[in-house]
């Protein structure tokens, strides 16, 4: 019985550690994290959680390699704003308030052809794109997913960005966890892992006690 109890507690501890794994972005001029491409296609979802005390900052960006399509998620005066383009013109959805309160907040983007829904905690809003073609770029030329900021090399290659202004957005300072979406090789959404290309000086991996 004691052995079984021991393994039960060990199992629960391992679950807690996995759930508590998150990373900290310091918000400096070279601070960002880089993840594999999101196959946004025409029906897809992406979600993550963040915690910060700042009211503005870039949370996430990805695009089609510099043509038309992009997804930008950022904090704007405590609200979460999704700006995106699927080729028919930019759309904006703003949800939430006081999200810079130092508490965890969950963000989800859900694609369904021309309709895109942004959810923040229990609130949501949606927008309908114009046009007839709603495919998000091509995986072969799409960018990776960037969290918290953009790599500095984009400063001299703005033509590679579908939304060049993203390079000037204030960087995010805070914690991120549970980035979940389907990658190139997997149609089932799963928790993403940071690629080998990120700012090691400003990105700290840590186990944090989640409140």
From TrEMBL:
Organism of origin: Cotesia glomerata (Lepidopteran parasitic wasp)
Signal peptide: 1-20
Xref: Gene3D superfamilies: 2.60.120.200
SUPFAM superfamilies the UniProt entry points to: Concanavalin A-like lectins/glucanases
One Pfam family here: Laminin_G_2
GO-annotated cellular components: membrane
Domain Laminin G: 22-211
Protein name: Laminin G domain-containing protein
